[in-house]
Amino acid sequence: MKKTLIISIIASLFLGEAVHARSDSNLDRMISQEVSNVFSESYNDGYDDMIEHGIREALEEELARRAEDEIWYKEGRDRSKRHDHYINRRVRRTIKRDVSADKRRKRRAWIYSSKKNKPAKKPPVYIYKVPRWPFFSQFFEQKDLFQIDVSVSGASQAYSSAGRTQDMSKLAFGQGLITIKDICLASKLAKLGKIEFETDMTMRHPDVDDLKTLADQPVVFDGSTFAVLGAANFARHFRKGDVTVGFQIPVGVRENKLRLTSKLTDNVKNNLRSDGSFTGKTLEEILVDKILKAKNIDFNRTYRTTSLGDIGIFAHCDIGSKAFERLVFGINVMLPTAREQDSCKLWEPELGGGGFSRVELFTSMLWDVHRFFNPHAHVSLNIGVPGKVTRRVPERITYTTNEPREEIEKKLVCGENIRLLDPACPLDPLMPPTAEEASFSELDSTVRHFANTPKKVKIRPGIQVTARVGTVIEKAILSRGFFDVFYQARVRGKDYLGFRRHDDVFEPDIWLDNSYQVEHKVGFDYSYQFNENYRAFLGGTYAFAGKNVPKDLEGHITFNFEF
Q1: Rg of the chain's alpha carbons, rounded to an integer?
Q2: What does residue 146 show for φ and ψ, rounded to 5 degrees?
Q3: Which H or E run contains 59?
Q4: Is 476 or 61 the better-scoring residue by pLDDT?
Q5: Which tens digit of pLDDT belongs to each residue from 167-197?
Q6: How many CA atoms lie within 13 A of 65 on its CB side?
Q7: Residue with the larger pLDDT of the pair 331 and 352
Q8: 364-395 pLDDT, tens per residue?
Q9: Is the pLDDT of residue 253 over 80?
């Protein structure tokens, strides 16, 4: 009893100092020293060595265990304090992503489970942000998504190849100044002096002089475009949301307005003959009734078309990653189902991509950083498939002394009762024309849409790259509202011909001029999630800079239905 009491007293006294030890070596040294002192003072009355050794070991083990427990507790408490003190944004983001991923897994488990396995009560509505990406790259939570999208856009100005503002009609007809001789070969030949006297050799035919007078008359247009476009889009999840497949069916109305703003100059009016077929006509009447009618081209102040657009079929994968809240890779195929532009109308609008099939590879990324800063990016590579399309292709008309004049004269418009020069049969023996004066090789038109002949031509569209970056603000105005602001850049390469004719009679190169495009847009979008099934979007975009693109302003409204 005495020995037990002594051991307990020694252990209690020594434990108070041992818990403050900083290392295992110091602890062992203190235990040995204290136990030796205790036994040298309290146990030198002749106890058995075996009992003394056992008591010593038991005391050392008990003290060591308690000291280690105390040290471990202090070190753990210090680590916890350091963690709380030095926690950073990366740790908070990781925790938030893990919580979001856990909610997403639970949500999908409920959505894709059978009815008998569904819980009795639905989980709370899962509110999540959706950036303003194209439909083929959008993500959604439930199995199916149906979207109705309506947009209104318009432009009266465009950007030239140098980035300057110009009239919208320049995109259709080219940037150069248009004159009568550029769209009417007979006027150019009259200017060059290659049209001969009338058969009545007493006087020149009045139209010959008038065509020469009109040759340098400017033709200036004022154009604008307006469109209301809609689309019915559908997508479905497979493999519990990892793979998405869907399609887009666009339809809409586009209207092009074209007005002739130039008039006959005073010099032209004064020099027109009083007995010719151009007498008393305005410039629009001369252009429409004499030139375009002969080319079988219809000129209206307003062109309107309503048709189906290019149908799209797409598939993408939603890849889970701790670095992104959303990471999407996919492919989109556009089919040329839109009605092709009518070549018999001067500037008929079209709703598709020019009659070409296109394959688009894309990726979209969304980061979850902060309520007021959630950056996102969308990048796509659009590759056009070469195809044959109908275009008015200029024809090179060549005339030499060895060719019959009648075949060449049939190709001239505004050429009634006029003849080409024939050096083999000169009308004036004293001043016969030379072969150089009579022969020529000219295009029937040097302006797009004004050529004489509609023709199928194979064109390879240029590659297009689109990049969009922006950020989403959560709880904007309303608790379930999101505000997205973004910038988009689009670059399209120049078109190329699929093949060339060996005789080089037709020159389709005119359709390749200024076919490259650069576009810079800014836009915003406000979305509101009503519940787990319905979401609405409202926003717009504006093209503030670019090359060979319209300076358009666009607004849209979109409704999403998940089920």
Answers
A1: 42
A2: -120, 130
A3: helix 49-86
A4: 476
A5: 999 999 988 899 999 999 888 888 887 776 5
A6: 7
A7: 331
A8: 999 988 889 999 999 999 999 998 899 999 98
A9: yes
Angle at 400 between CA 395 and CA 402, to 5 degrees: 120
Q: How confident is the model at residue 539 (pLDDT cuts 50, 70, 90)?
A: very high
Across the strands, what pairs with 234?
146, 247
Distance CA(530)–CA(536), nearest Å, equals 8
Q: Give the largest CA-CA distance in the chain.
A: 163
Q: How many CB atoms lie within 10 A of CB 382?
A: 20
Q: Which two tokens stand for residue 485?
A: 């602001």
- Of 184, 191, 307, residue with least CA distance to 249: 307
**What sections of 130-287 are H helices per DSSP?**
169-173, 180-183, 185-192, 206-214, 266-271, 283-285
| Predicted local confidence at residue 433, as pLDDT | 62
Strands 374-384 and 358-366: antiparallel
Distance between CA atoms of residues 315 and 126, nearest Å: 24
User: Tokens for 522?
Assistant: 């800014």
For the sheet containing 496-497, what is the strand order?
A: 387-393, 453-460, 496-497
Contact of 136 with 314, CB cutoff 8 Å: yes
Phi, psi dihedrals of residue 265, rounded to the nearest 5°: -70, 160
pLDDT single digits (tens) 400-409:
766 677 777 7
Q: Are 233 and 146 in contact (CB under 8 A)?
A: yes
User: What would the two tokens of residue 358 be?
Assistant: 């296109």
Q: Is the alpha carbon torsion for 328, 333, 338, 343 positive or negative?
A: positive
**Long-range pairs of 283-292 with CB within 8 A, sequence gap ≥ 24:** 283/217, 283/219, 284/260, 286/180, 286/214, 287/180, 287/219, 287/260, 290/413, 290/414, 291/180, 291/183, 291/184, 291/413, 291/414, 292/346, 292/450
Give the integer Cα–Cα distance in Å for 287 and 280. Answer: 13
Cα(248)–Cα(302) distance, integer angstroms: 29
For every residue of 483-544, DSSP letters joined together read EEEEEEEEEEPPPEES---SS--B-GGGGGTT--EEEEEEEEEEEEE-SSSEEEEEEEEEEE
On whether the CB atoms of residues 444 and 397 are closer than 8 A, the answer is yes
Q: CB-hemisphere CA count at 13 Å for 255?
A: 8
Report the pLDDT averaged over residues 332-361.
90
Q: Residue 474 is encoded by which pair of tokens?
A: 């959560």
Q: How far apart are CA 320 and CA 318, in angstroms?
A: 7
DSSP secondary structure letters along 527-541: EEE-SSSEEEEEEEE
Collapse the DSSP code of 10 into the 3-class scheme (helix H, G, I; strand E, B; otherwise coil) and give the result: helix
Residue 39 has pLDDT above 80, yes or no: no
Whether the CB-CB separation of 363 and 392 falls below 8 Å is answered with no
Closest CA to 424 of 443, 397, 405: 405
Q: How far apart are CA 31 and CA 39, in angstroms?
A: 12
- What pLDDT, on the 0 to 100 scale, is given for residue 78? 66
C-beta neighbour count of 11 within 10 angstroms: 18
pLDDT confidence of residue 115: 44
- Say how far apart CA 96 and CA 186 lie, in whole Å: 76
pTM over 0.85: no
State the amino acid at position 370 in one-letter form: H
Q: How far is CA 400 from the centre of its chain?
A: 51
**CA dihedral (263, 266, 267, 269) positive or negative:** positive
